């Protein structure tokens, strides 16, 4: 029969095990998402320019579009979700406007903001985007409904691509596999949204949070760590549609 360890050795062994457990829990989680962004872009701005007069946004906080530095996000969907960091604010309204390649407005929706800060997804309606087409969007925090020159405005573009081979692989893929497939293909909007949905379902998953931070700080995206670690919140908790007066022109 094995003899029990002497008290001093037993105490040292327990301390060593506890120490290793603590170190393991503190070790950084290795991010697993590597996106291959295409070398294309579009006019736009991820952060608003300077504005005069009333400022309804908290000091040193900025509305930010969660898009690559190119200002263009690719998608495979007809109703993708756009993501924005909405700062703490006292705005009466927030507005999303979508235009086609001929600068014709095809969708507009206003929202009542909660005033709370966080990264939030804003989904487009079904059948909004046509394959192969590029669209421009404007997203505004409206500080004064009577003077839109005071808006905090970000702008960018989104393009729906047609990739039958990718779509075939996605049909039987798990969420983690879909994330990898989108990232390898450089499909920004779908990569970001897939990861966001995974985080919503597993909010305590440190690996998913590490993936999110890594994605937002990767080459070609390059947000700072403060924004990359901003809370990801459900849209319904930050934005409430106003009157559902949006219009969609079917492609």
Question: Which SSEs are present, and which pair or pack?
Answer:
Layout: H1 7-26, E1 64-65, E2 72-75, E3 81-86, E4 93-99, E5 105-113, E6 118-123, E7 134-142, E8 152-160, H2 164-170, H3 175-185, H4 188-201, H5 206-217, H6 225-228, E9 239-241
Parallel strand pairs: 2-8
Antiparallel strand pairs: 1-3, 3-6, 4-5, 4-7, 5-9, 7-8
Helix pairs in contact: 3-4, 4-5
Could you explain the architecture of this structure?
Mean pLDDT is 88; it is low at 18-29. The protein has one domain: Macroglobulin (MG2) domain (Immunoglobulin-like). Strands 2-8-7-4-5-9 form a 6-stranded mixed beta sheet, covered by helices on one side. Strands 1-3-6 form a 3-stranded antiparallel beta sheet, with helices on one face. The termini are far apart. The chain is α+β, with helices and mostly antiparallel strands. Helix 3 (175-185) packs antiparallel against helix 4 and helix 4 (188-201) runs antiparallel to helix 5 (206-217). The chain contains 6 helices and 9 strands. The radius of gyration is 22 Å and the shape is globular. The longest helix has 20 residues, at 7-26. It has helices at residues 7-26, 164-170, 175-185, 188-201, 206-217, 225-228, and strands at 64-65, 72-75, 81-86, 93-99, 105-113, 118-123, 134-142, 152-160, 239-241.
Could you name the CATH class? Answer: Mainly Beta
| Tally of DSSP β-strands | 9
User: Strand arrangement, largest sheet?
Assistant: 2-8-7-4-5-9
Radius of gyration computed on alpha carbons? 22 Å
Fraction in beta strands? 15-25%
Please report the distance between the alpha carbons of the first and last residues: 79 Å
Residues in helices, as a percent range: 25-40%
Shape-level CATH architecture: Sandwich
Classification by helices and strands: alpha+beta
CATH superfamily: Macroglobulin (MG2) domain
Order of helices and strands: HEEEEEEEEHHHHHE
**Count of discrete alpha- or pi-helical segments spanning 4 or more residues:** 6
Q: Which descriptor suits the 3D outline?
A: globular
Mean of residue pLDDT values: 88
CATH topology call: Immunoglobulin-like
Number of domains: 1
Q: Unreliable stretches, pLDDT < 50, 5 or more residues? A: 18-29
Largest sheet, in brief, is: 6 strands, mixed
């Amino acid at each position: 029969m094995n003899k029990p360890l002497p008290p001093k050795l037993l105490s040292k062994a327990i301390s060593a095990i506890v120490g290793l457990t603590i170190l393991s829990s503190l070790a950084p989680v290795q991010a697993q998402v590597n996106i291959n962004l295409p070398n294309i872009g579009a006019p736009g701005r991820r952060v608003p320019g300077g504005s005069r007069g009333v400022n309804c946004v908290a000091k040193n906080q900025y509305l930010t579009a969660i898009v690559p530095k190119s200002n263009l996000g690719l998608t495979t969907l007809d109703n993708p979700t756009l993501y924005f960091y909405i700062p703490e604010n006292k705005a009466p309204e927030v507005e999303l406007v979508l235009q086609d390649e001929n600068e014709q407005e095809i969708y507009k929706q206003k929202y009542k903001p909660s005033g709370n800060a966080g990264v939030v997804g804003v989904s487009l309606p079904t059948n909004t985007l046509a394959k192969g087409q590029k669209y421009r969007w404007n997203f505004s925090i409206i500080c004064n409904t009577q003077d839109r020159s005071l808006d905090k405005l970000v702008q960018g573009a989104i393009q729906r691509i047609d990739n039958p081979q990718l779509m075939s692989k996605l049909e039987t893929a798990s969420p983690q596999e879909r994330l990898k497939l989108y990232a390898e293909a450089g499909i920004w909007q779908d990569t970001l949204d897939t990861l966001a949905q995974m985080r919503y379902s597993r909010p305590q998953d440190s690996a998913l949070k590490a993936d999110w931070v890594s994605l937002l700080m990767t080459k070609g995206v390059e947000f700072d760590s403060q924004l990359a670690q901003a809370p990801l919140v459900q849209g319904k908790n930050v934005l409430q549609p106003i009157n559902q007066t949006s219009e969609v022109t079917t492609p």
